[in-house]
Amino acid sequence: MELQISSDIPFQMLDSNSALISEKISFNPWSLRCHKQQLSRMRSESQDRKLYKFLLLENVVHHFGYPCILDLKMGTRQHGDDASEEKAARQIKKCELSTSGALGVRVCGMQVYQLDSGHYVCRNKYYGRSLSIEGFGQALYEFLHNGRYLRKDLFDAILQKLRSLKGVLEKQASYRFYSSSLLIIYDGKEKKLELRQNSAETLSQGNLQDSISSLPSSSSSMSNTENLPNIDLRMIDFAHSTYKGFRDDLTVHDGPDRGYIFGLENLINILEKIQLQNQ
User: Which residue of 74, 102, 114, 256 has the lowest C-beta tally within 10 Å?
Assistant: First the structure.
């Protein structure tokens, strides 16, 4: 069984020392590693003729041309109610040594399309664990930077979705989203940029009048929702999530998930700070 996860756009992985791997490859190296590990585990157990059950997952980035993805592990607690004492201790230590403890959020993975080089830059979970509070803010800045300039057009859309999510979670009575992640996704190529590039190409060919007539007016551009940045925000990974009365979970949680909300508040505050500093 061979795995094919390829792309027309090359990827480059940044290691823990922030050194850029020179070789450009046509797949996300961290995704490939995770899939290969799972396939290897299944092959090793194939002699026992085990039956596997799978969840059919949606590819939430399928409608993005150049998907830029930030995977954030949310909350101040990462172990579920069913975790052993040993596993709970490991997860608590991991949170204490990362921004999960201080901020309630840490980087778990990232890929960003770079306009200047035409490739994706990737970060993995070990990079996220090593970040300080200041480093986490820098990682958010890098996620919103396309190699040429900061995508200032994205801030309002992302912040609006984060604030809406925070409002919803504050109304929940007992849900806990332990070890879940939050995906922030946007397209690495702006429609406005493509429009400018296409217009420049047309102008260079001498078709000035045709170019002018094909460009939308400023009023129609402002009112056209298609010109707004395409942002997606997804909560994922609910294997350790629970709520009051869920199956045989005897642990009772009251009130909203304060650890998750704490992470959202810090995420919003840091993004607002970056936006203010770069107006």
Answer: 102
Q: How far apart are CA 239 and CA 248, in angstroms?
A: 14
Residues in the chain, how many? 279
Burial of 76 (0-12, 13-18, 19+ CB in 10 A): buried
236-256: pLDDT as tens digits: 999 999 998 888 778 889 999
Q: Which residue has the higher pLDDT, 140 or 225?
A: 140
- 8-state DSSP, 232: E
3-state secondary structure 27-47: CCHHHHHHHHHHHHHHHHCHH
pLDDT tens, position by position, 62-84: 889 999 999 999 999 999 998 99
Q: How far is CA 16 from the centre of its chain?
A: 19
d(CA 279, CA 274) in angstroms, rounded, equals 9
Q: How many helices (H) and strands (E) does the chain have?
A: 10, 8
Alpha helices per DSSP H over 52-124: 85-96, 99-103
